[in-house]
Design a protein that fits this description.
With 768 residues, the chain is of the alpha+beta class. 47% of the residues lie in helices and 19% in strands. It is rod-shaped and about 245 Å long. The structure holds adenosine-5'-diphosphate.
Amino acid sequence: MTRFDQASDEQLIRLLAELERGDKGSDELTCLVHELLVHQIELEQQNRELLAVRAVLEESRERYADLYDFAPVGYLSIDAAGRIQNINLTGAKLLGQSRDRLIGRAFSTYIARDDRMLLKAHIADALQSKAFGSCELRLRPDKVTLGAEPSILRLESALEAASTPARIRVILSDITERRQAEHERRQRDIAAAAAESRHRLVSGLERLSAAMTAAFDPKTVLNDLLRVVQDLLRADRAWLLYPCDPDATEVRILAETAVPSCPGEPPTDRAIPTDEPLRRLIRAALNASDPVQDPNPSAVPMLGGGFAPRSRLIIAVRPEGDRPSLLGLHLCRVERTWSEDDLTLVRALAGRLADILDVLAVRRALTESEERFRATFEQAAVGICHLDAEGFFLRVNQKLCIILGYTQEELLARTCRDLVHPEDHDGLMQYIARIGEDMSYARDRDRGEAQSLEMRHIGKSGQTIWCNLTMAAVRDSSGGLRYFIAVIEDISARKQLEEREFRHRHALFRVGRISTMGEMSSAIAHEVAQPLMGISTYAGGALERIDSAPGEIEPLRLALREISRLAARAGRIIERIRDFSKQHASAPRPIDPVAISRAAIGMIEPEIRTNGVQIELRVGADVPCAIGDPVEIEQVLINLLMNGMEAMRDTPPTERRLHVTIERTDRDQVRVAVADRGVGLERTDPRRLFDPFYTTKEGGTGLGLSMSRTIVDFYGGRIWAEPRPGGGAVFAFTLPGHLPDDSTERSPASPADRTLDGPPDTAIGDPQ
Ligand code: ADP
C-alpha cells in the first residue's frame, strides 16, 4: 500500500468513527463512504496508471540520457558567464575532459586564446536572440594531440526558453575534418589557379618572344606584340603610346591593335598634342609600378579613336635605354574589373615589353646604321670596295664601277691585281701586304693617318686611271684578317693638273737655267778661254821647239801633257755647263740645304770670280733637312746669288760680299737668306718684285724672282725681300723642315749627288 492509500484509509477510518459518535443519518454516511470507496478505487486505478507511465518515463529518460550522452554531436548548456552547466559525453570528449571536471568550468578555458573574443561575442549574441546563432572556434592547442591539426568546433547556440538564470543551449560539432577537406580543396583550387595563371604568364611571355623574333621590322614586331597582349588579356584594344612623359608637348601612338568589332581608329604614327586628361593618365601610370585601372576611361576618347571605352587598364613600360612608353588596354562595350591574375600578367608583359623595346631600339639603331652605311657605300663620291685576302672583290660600290668602267658582276669576278697598271703592280702588292700584316697601320688609321698609295689602274677600255688608294684591314676579335676596305679616288684630273703644272715649272726652270747660262756666258767664256789659251800657248811653244831643237823630245812631251790637262779641264767645264742645262726637277724629297747652297755657289764660281765677290756661308745650329727638289732649290739660290752679285756691280770691291745664311726657324722650317751690299730695294716696286717680267735692269728678263717664288710656293715655303741694315738687300726663303722622327727618313739629296763636278765647298771667298 502506498502512503497515499494509507493516508486515505486513515482519513476514512477517522471519518467513520466520527460518524458513529455523532447522530448523523446513516444513509448519507453510507453514500459518502461509498463514494469514498469508489474514489479510492479510482485513485488506486490512477495510481497504477501513473506508476506504469512513470516506469515508461524512466525507461524513456534512460534512453534519452543515452541518446543525449552518445549523440554524434556535443550538447551542453552554459550560463551567461559561459560556465558549463551540463554537457553530454560527446561534448566532453570533444573538449578532451571528463564530464565531471567540465561542469562549472568556463567554456572559454578550452578554446584557443585567439578565438575567445569570438566566443564572447557569440555568447552575447545568443543571450540577445532566441534564434540559433553559430560560430567556429579552435580548441586550445594543448587540448589537441601533438602533431595533429587544431580541432575546429562549430557552435550552434540559442537561449534556453524560460530559463532563469539565463542558460544557453549549445550544440558542438567537430568540423576539423570538414575544414581540413575544405582547406585542401581550396589549396588545390589555388594551386590549380596558380598553375593556370603561371601557364598563362609563361605562354604569354613565350608568345611575346615568338612575336619578337617572327619579324625584323620594328613596326611589325610592335604590332604583333600588342596583338599578343590584347589577346592574352582578352581586351578589345591595345595600344602603345610614346613618350609616357607628362612634359612632352606631343605624343605618338607607336602601335595599336583591336578586335574587329571595336569601334574607332586611334591616330597611329601621328603627333598628338598632349592635353590635361592625357597628362593625368600619363602621370597616373608613371606614379604606379603596377597596372592602373583608369577610373575615368572616357576622359581621353582620342586613345579609342574617338570612342570612349568602358574600361581601361594602363601601365608604364620602362625600357632602360629610352623614355617610358604607355601601354593601354581597352574594353569597348563592357565594364571589367581586372583580376589580380590579369594585373600580374600585365605587369609581367609590360616588363618583357620593356626588354623588347630595348632590343628593338638596338635593332633600329643597327638598321639605321646599316642604312647609313649602305647609303655611304653606295652613294659615296669615291670608289669603295671590300677585298678578301687574295684581292678578290667582295663588294663594290657604284662609283668604283664608274671609275673603272666595269659592271658590278664583272668586278666581283676579278681581283684588284687584274686591274692594276703593270708598273704599279709590285707597289700595290707591297702596300696590301703591309696593311694586312702591320697592326700599326690600323693604329695610324685610328689616329686618322691612314696611309694611301697613288697608283694607276687600267680601265675596261684600256685607259690609264690615276687613283689614290687607301686601304684598311678589318680584323676579327682575335686579330685575324676578315677583309680589306679600300677607298679608291679617281685622281686623274689632279694628276693631269699636276702634270701640267710640272711641265710649266719645268719650262720655267729651263728658262731660268738658260737665262742663268746667258748671264754667266761671259764668265764661262772667260773660264773656257783660260785652258784654251794655255793649250794655244803650249802648242805654239811646242812647234817652236820642233823647229829650234827637233831632236829634243822631252820638252815636247811636257807641252803635250800640259795641253792634254788643259783640254780635259776645258772639257770638264763644258760638261758641267751641259749638265747644268740638262738638269730638271723631280719629285719633292728631303734635301740638305747646306749641300745645295754649296753646289749653287760652286755652279756660279766663274761669275763669282769674274765679279770679284766674296761669299760667306753661315750655317746655324741644328739645321734640319728641307723638303723640295734639289735642282729647283739650287736654281732658286743661283737666282738670288746672281741678283746679289749684279746688285753689287758698283759696290767698292772690298765690300762686295754675299752672306748666305742657313738657319732653322722656330717653326722647324729651314730659312735661307742671301744678303748683299748692293743697290738696295729703293728703286724697285716691292709689290711687283716677284711678278713675272718685272725688271729694273737693262736687258733683264724679270723671270728669276717669279720663278723662284713659283718653286718655293710649290714646296709650301715662302719667299720675300727686305732692305739690309747698312745698305743692300736681303732675299730670303723658307722651306718645310723634314724632321728626323719621320719614318720615311731618307738620305738628303743635293744636286751634287748627281751632277756636280767636284766638291761644292770650292766656293770662292767662302770663309769656312
Ligand atoms: P732680272 O734679274 O732679269 O731683272 P729678276 O726677277 O731676277 O729679273 O729680278 C727682278 C728685279 O728685282 C730686278 O730687275 C731688280 O730690280 C730687283 N732685284 C733683284 N735682286 C735684287 C737685289 N739683290 N738687289 C736689288 N734689287 C734686286
